[in-house]
Specification:
Number of strands: 2
Order of helices and strands: HHHHHEE
Strand content: under 5%
Number of helices: 5
Distance between the termini: 41 Å
Structural class: mainly alpha
Largest sheet: 2 strands, antiparallel
Length: about 170
Amino acid sequence: MNALECRAMLYAATEAKYGNVQLDGLVGIPADKAEGYFKDAKAAAKKIIDSGKFALYSAKSDKAENFQYLFLDETSANTEQIFTKAFDASDKGNSFDYFNAPQSFKLDYGCVTNPTADFVADFEYVDGSDGALKVKDGSGNPIKYNDPTDLFKDKDPRMLVLFSTPSAHGKEVR
């Protein structure tokens, strides 16, 4: 219940802070209520944290693997999931995942959609610097990489999840 309360208060606070009241107050939340909703969201989140039922996922020693398995691990080891339900393809099906799987999942189809450069740039470098891809050197000349993956060297390890998947032997497959 605290998770739902936190989520509702956060949505209300965001709407109050960034939205507009329209139709003579029928739609929207007045801006002066934003701070109260943010405080309520924080209090509800604190109850979740203090309950000890949930924690950041850290079953793997590698941070990139943690980020990947956060979405794949359906066992009780995944203490980060709150509002989740496992997808059961036996009674629900579609081909979206089949045609939009990352390159590393491709067997015969897939890769219709890949991460955009803007999305990749959202992942900072491990030294904390901005995530913009390094395509020019200090003089403004284009950088020629020997290996295309060198463009992503030293990016936040979670970004690697976009381009790879573990094999049955726990090694990265590209």
